[in-house]
Specification:
144 residues, 4 helices
Amino acid sequence: MLRFIVILFIAFVGYKSFQIYTSIQDDNKRNAEKLVAHPCIKDWHACKDISELMNYNEEIDKARMDCDIKLDNFGHYGSPVWESSFHKHFDSWYKNNNFKKSGYAVLVDNKAFLPTEDGGKERVVLQCFYDLNKHRVDNVLRGD
C-alpha cells in the first residue's frame, strides 16, 4: 500500500512539474514575441522613457562596455574595482534624465571603488555620459 502511495505521489509531482514547465515555456514565448516587436530595441527615439531605453534598447549594452573601457585610465591611483565580479556595471540611471531632448543617456554605477593614495579603496558613484547620436562615451565623471 505504501509503495502505491509513493508511486502515485511521484506521478502527481511529475505531472505538475510538466504543467509548470509548459506554462513557463508559453510565457517565455509570449514575452519574446513582445520583445521582438518592441520599437525601442533598435531606435532609441521610440523609447517612451529612460526605463524603456535602459531595459530594451540594444545600444545600452554597447554603452556599458564603452563606459568600462573609458574607465581604464580614470583614477589617479588606478582603475576602479568592484566588490563583486558578478556585478553588472552601470546598471542604474537617473530617472529624470531627458535623453530625448539631450541625446545623452547618463549611466550610473554606485558600486565602484577607486584606489586611494594610501592603498585603500573609496566607494564612489560613477556617471557615464553616452551620446546616443554619435554612439560613443563623451565623459565619465565621479558623482559623489
